[in-house]
Each structure stands twice: as C-alpha cells, then as structure tokens.
Amino acid sequence: MDQSFRKIISQEITKLDLLLKAFINDINQGPETKEKLRDLNNQAYDVSEHIKLRIEDLEGIIENTPTLKKDINILKEQYSKNINNLRSANLKAQLNFDVLTRSALFNKDIHEKQNDFLKKRKQAKKEELISNSIKLTTGLKDVTKFIAQTVKHSEDNLNLLTKSSSKIYSTNEELHSMDTNIIQSRKLLKKYDRRHLTDKLLIVLALIFFFSAVLYIISKRVSLFGILGFRKKAINN
C-alpha cells in the first residue's frame, strides 16, 4: 500500500516538476507585461508549494526506510534548483522590464525633445515667415512709392515734352515764316540784281552812245577844220 502511494506521489512530483520548469521557461522567454509575469509567478509558486508538500508527504512515508532517503534528497535538490531557476528567471524578466521601461522613458524623452524641437522650429519658421512678410510688405510699399514717383516723374517729363513740342512747333512755324520771308527776300534781291544789271547796261550803252557822239562830233570838226585850212591855203596860193 505504501509502495503504491509512494509511486503515485513520485509521479505527481514529476508532473509538477515539469509544469514548474515550463513556467520558468515562459518567464525566461520574457513576458510582454508585468501582469503576465505576476500571473506566471503565482502559478509557479502554487506548483512549487504542491511539490514541497508532496516531497514532505513522500518523506513521511519513507521515514522508516533509510535506503529511500537518497531519493528524497535528490528531489529536494531538484526542488531547490527549480526555485533558484525561478528566482533567476524573475530577475532576468525584471531586468528586461527595467530596460524596456528605461528605453521607453528614453524614447519618450527623445520624442518630447523632438516635439519640442519641432515646435520651436515651427515657431521660428512662423516668426521668420512673419518677418519675411513684413519685409515683403515694406518692400512692396517702397516699390509702390518708387513706382508712384516714377509715374509722377514721367508725367512731369511728358508735360515738359508737351511744352517743348509746343515750343518746337511754334519755332518751326516761325522758321517756316522766316524761310518764306527769306525766299521772298531772295526773289527781291534777284529782281534787284537783274534791275541793277539792266541799269549798268543802260549806263554803259549811254556812255558808249555819249562817247560815240563826242567822237563823231570831234571827227566832224576835225574834218571841217581840215577843209577850211585847205581852202585857206588854196586862196592864199
């Protein structure tokens, strides 16, 4: 009877040992959350307590059988080893959670710094856009003022050109009138030159006629004196 009961307890301890190792392995794999780790630890703790109780039950059965105490010691060593592995797995899992927490905090800090940098950059860009808009508006005002001054200057130049054109037109009219007067004066001068030439010709012809008449008269008198002298000589002879 004791032997059959001992065999049943040993089998149960073996199954519980495998189950405990499975929980330890799950913890070593790294649970996704602390709640999952807590749940695995609770189940592993329950199994380890059952193993401990079953070892105590088995130890009570074989208390009067010294030759089987060696098997009890092996089970106790295996139990202690599983407990140590469970603690190591929990420590490893806790370290992983610490790393993840620190990494999350670091990433959060980086994310916050990035957001702060982006906000500052956006604000600086906004301020730069506002400054550029003000500069552009000022520049447009200056350009508008310059265009207005240019238009006024152009209007003044146009008025000056209009006045100059009027003066030029008036001067042109005066020049045209002077040209007409010059042409008429030239015609009168030509007419006067022709008349002066005619007068000169008439004077020359009058002088020629006068000198011809004088020569004619002189020649007549010379001829007359010659005839008279000849007659006088003839009378004297």
Q: How does the helix and strand content classify structurally?
A: mainly alpha
Q: What is the gyration radius calculated from CA atoms?
A: 75 Å
The overall strand count is 0
The major β-sheet equals: none
What would you call the shape? rod-shaped
In DSSP terms (H or I, runs of 4 or more residues), the helix count works out at 3
Low-confidence stretches: none
Instruction: Give the terminus-to-terminus CA distance.
Output: 242 Å
Helix content: over 70%
| Helix-strand pattern | HHH
Mean pLDDT: 78
Strand content: under 5%
Keywords:
single chain; 237 residues; mainly alpha; 3 helices
Topology (elements, then pairings):
Elements: H1 2-29, H2 34-61, H3 69-236
Structure, explained:
The chain has a domain at 2-119. It is mainly alpha-helical and 237 residues long. It has helices at residues 2-29, 34-61, 69-236.
Short account of what is shown:
The protein is 95% helix and 0% strand. The chain is mainly α and 237 residues long. The model has no long low-confidence stretch (mean pLDDT 78).
